[in-house]
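Throughout our pipeline, every protein is held as a single compact record rather than as scattered files. The remainder of this section carries one protein's record, kept here as part of the documentation.

===
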Amino acid sequence: MADIFISYTHRDNAKLSDEQQGWVDRFHEALEMRLTSLWGQHADIWRDLKTAGSDVLDAAIEKQVAEASILITVLSPGYVRSDWCTKELSVFCDAAEKGAGLHIGTRSRVVKVVKTPVERGVEAAHGALAESVGYPFFRLDQRGVPLEFDVRFGERARQQFLGRVNELAYDICAMLEKLTGTSAGRVAPPSGSRVYLAESTSDLAPFTEQLRRELEQYGHAVLPEQPFRHASDYVERVAESLRQADLSIHPVGASYGVIPEGERRSVLELQYDLAGREAQARPEMTRIPWMLPGTAGGDERLAAFAASLQDDPQLLITSLDSLKMTVADLLASKKAAPVGATLVRERAVLVYLIADRCDAAASQACEDALFAGGCEVIAPLSSGTETELRLDHEENLKNCDAIAIYHGATTEFWLRTKLRDLQKAFGYGRPRPFLATAVVLAPPDTPDKRRFRSNEVLVINALDGDLPGVLQPFFDRLASSRRVS
């Protein structure tokens, strides 16, 4: 029996020549290598290699589909138009429902790899595709045109491709471990903390899934373990789950959400109010509503609910990374601290100070200030071949604890490039989030620097040259991220 069956249309694996690999060939190879590394044993991944045939599944393929643990669908316009592919999806879902079920906890055993986007309505017509959290292997350009992550499109596309494969492999490994009862020991031991991650709307599904994944990686129990039915007992089930939680997170997106049977309000409002009651009964429990900056919806009910959240002192309107930092700080502070507990540092924090050669001399003051604050500082290589410089940069991004980007004589394009590199770090194999990331705005003073702001990183204004003083927020973030009982 295959662990994983890849369902795809052969149009998405087109090759320019017999010597080249198609997109699905490269995806299969990269996933198998990364998954085997994470799982610690060979991952059996199967797909139909025939390039032609009828629209009727033969017995061998149907058996492989039905017995697979996980089905990966390579979604594209060609996939949803293929009778062969939709038949594979149907066979897998039918077999799963008759066996262990279609879900592992909150995750669907149908994993959607989105090679080329299709309309949501088209996905909805295929049942399991609509409810599956997708892994987009593309980005949209300024015109909204999808650009696929394809190694043939250059280094940036290659890194994006490998980064997304790494993310997918990690999640599949976690599902396989639960299905087989094995463990590769990749996650932290149980922390004892329990987080209720509220049901939200489809526009926030990628964000909430990423948040759930990282909480679990750090050993926190995430509630509920399985999604609740929107039946008449919905409120009772949510209340029971909240009674077990130390912290609840309530993502609010661009739509009002589902209304359970017998209720007049959506799941967003119901969960938020129930968590408020629990927080009143147990003051040690914290409720955090969260919205992305710029979130807006046309529904009057959503607008009224969002307006009511403005009175909540815990409301966060920020990026996902900032939310994760806040949650980490709260969970650390909730641990019972004995008298005299201090910041434990088994080793100094390793800060990667990214500075261009044109700022080599000017950034020395920043390096000295970081060192004086108790950090070990690593800087980019000052010389070497282009390949050596790139490999050193990737290793530093992968292994450091925190990042400080020194923006002095460099251009705004250079800064944006380095900020994008932070996202690539996980594609290089980085196993954990950064403790802190910051941009140090240094002389010369320019209008662009004065206008620069970010929800993703700390912005440190050192245009007046007072580096030791202005770095304090960076040190505070490092301290709160490393605080233990």
